[in-house]
Amino acid sequence: MANYIVRRLFYGVLVLVGVNLLTFVLFFAVNTPDDMARMNIGGKRVSADAIQKWKAERGYDKPLLWNEKAQGSEKLTQTLFFQRSLPLFVLDFGATDTGRDIAYELSQRAGPSLAVAAPTFLLGVFAVVVFSLVLVFFRATYLEFWGVAFCVFLLSISGLFYIIAGQFLFSKTLNLVPISGYSNGPDLVVFLILPVLIGIVSRLGGEALFYRTMFLEEIGKDYVRTARSKGLSETMVLFRHVLGNALLPILTSTVAVLPLLFMGALIMESFFGIPGLGSFTIDAIAGQDFAGVRAMVFLGSLLYILGLVLTDISYTLVDPRVRLG
Description:
This protein is 72% helix and 0% strand. By secondary structure, the protein is an all-alpha fold.
């Protein structure tokens, strides 16, 4: 088991190195610092002096990998790769192109993102699993037919529509909750009710269909028939045996996204005015802040790889074949 975990961690590090190299190529070789300067200054007819000044102020005036003008070890250290890419591995994100400390921004915005994403994730998983098991319990009935039709209907609607319709109905028409905003005080729940509800409903359709198919495959197996022959009720069979043996695919779709809860939802945070990491990423893209975007790309990749490693480790806890093999 230890060798399995170490091997997965090693693969994760290799993937992270590849992501870092690819990000460096995209941000500094394909889209050069000169291009960044032109887009930030505005317009294509920008003087060379203005471009050089913009690059010097932000540390983009150095060679990519090798500095011929430097002496000794500075030939490597006085480069964009050494100063902009390698520090990311120790979570040194530096400053944005506008001068803000990225680490400070992340520390301030992780809380609001988690406040929205955590209840959405936990309540969403519970709602999807229970709804899927109910569909399986009433399989081959009209209730299952209309439940599946409802899931297909939910799946056919864009997530953006849920946000706009929810704000229009519950905030503007019924005036039940604020249309947007965020608070660190006791009234935080008032601002979170609508985005959390929309997040749960928007994921219900697709995931419920996936879980339903998975549970239907399990319910026809021999161990289920054996459990029924022992006199167990259908509810006990579903919630104890079927659900327990279907944990692997559930873990695949849930554990991997746990670290990404800190990243927030880009569209959700923007529409609801939540000062989280998602809105920080949108602001960085809109403001052409390449340092901020690069930091968020690396952080998102790191958290996603961590999620995959956690998924592999969770397999060893629920599947004896992985633990013993």
